[in-house]
Amino acid sequence: MAAARRHKRVAASQPGFLPLKSDLDNSGIAKLGRRKRVSKNKKKNWNKYSDIHDVEEFLDDVRLQERATGGLIADKPDETLFFVDTGEKKSIQKPEAVKKSKSSKPLHVDLILQPDSHVPAPKNILAYQRPNAKKLRRMAEREEKLAAMGVLPRREKLLQLRKTRAAQVKEKPPNPKDPARGFYDLWSADSSDPADPYYLEQTKRKLVKRPEKLNEKPSILPAVEVIAPGGSYNPDFLSHQTLLLEAHEAEVKKLKAEEKLKRQLAINRLNIATEESTFNEQVEGLIEEDEREEVRETDNAEKQSKDSAVGATAQQEKKTERQRKREKAERIKELRRAAAKKQLQSRQQLFQLRSIGAALKQRELKTRMRQTKRKAKQEAQKALPRRLGKLKFQDPDLEVQLSDELAGSLRTLKPEGSVLKDRFKSLQKRNLIEPRERAK
Questions:
Q1: Where are the annotated segments for Disordered (predicted)?
Q2: What is the extent of the structural domain holding 255?
């Protein structure tokens, strides 16, 4: 704006500048007379004694020329300002050869309302601005770069997926209440006729989808466990002795548990009442009250003497300002000493990188060992019965025969155990049912 004003003033100062107002001549300046001499080094005299009348008239004339002719007259070419009058009227043919009627002429009211200024309207900067223009430009550049690499943005992928889903329109099942539907014979052997899926599920023609969780077995144990070779009717000597040893260890374990329970429930002879304890219980409460009062008085006197001795030494003197400052300085020194020690330790750790690395490797090794042990423990627990109820599962007794009870043939073999109890215990061991007791 300042450059435009400077250009206008320079143009007006040229000898070819044509003012439109007659006031901008030397006669107006001569009427002002001699100027008053004032000091211009004071700010209060700048506006009071400054005459800017001639500058304002000049600027008004420049604005008038811009409104009337669209610019300064001095800048206009001669062809736009003058013409040669030869006396001949030339008929200027317009490109539109169609004659306009009176109705096509604008009304006088519209002519009055039309702007008469040749100055173009100021450019509306807000009309060219866009919110988040910089961000949108960056996103567009990034999308172009990804498109050149063959990578589609997320919006395009979702749009294509939506289009493919819309293309794959699934056929709706027929309405069971529609009278024009096809009939389905329930008792026919051929089930090729379409029917309602819900109807098929209810009539057991179509199986319900089984959850995957129900396909997992609660235990890895087999349904029927094979007994050890020592339990055969004609076993090997070593295998039979191994089975006997196992049964012996189970019985010893039961005996130890019973003995432990007996020891816990046994009567302590030290807690049995004696004649002396019985006499003390009977005599209790028969001591005279005078003796009790004397004992109480002596006890109170001893307590008061102790309290007075302790109270005299427990009082602390008030610290002086010098002592407080000294303690504060000691605390600051201690904090600085601790910070310096910590910094020194962090520096010393640079020389211990090798040992730190070895310690980390050892820790990782220990962690892996613990993980392997934990996994092995978890695998072992899969074969153990869980706690499904308030009772704990108890292993059944081993079905074993002694050496003199062995039979040489199946005819003379004595039956051991019960098949029903064995199946019942197997269900409990495989976590299919909870351990139970016979109702009494």
A1: 165-187, 281-328, 367-390
A2: 197-262+389-440
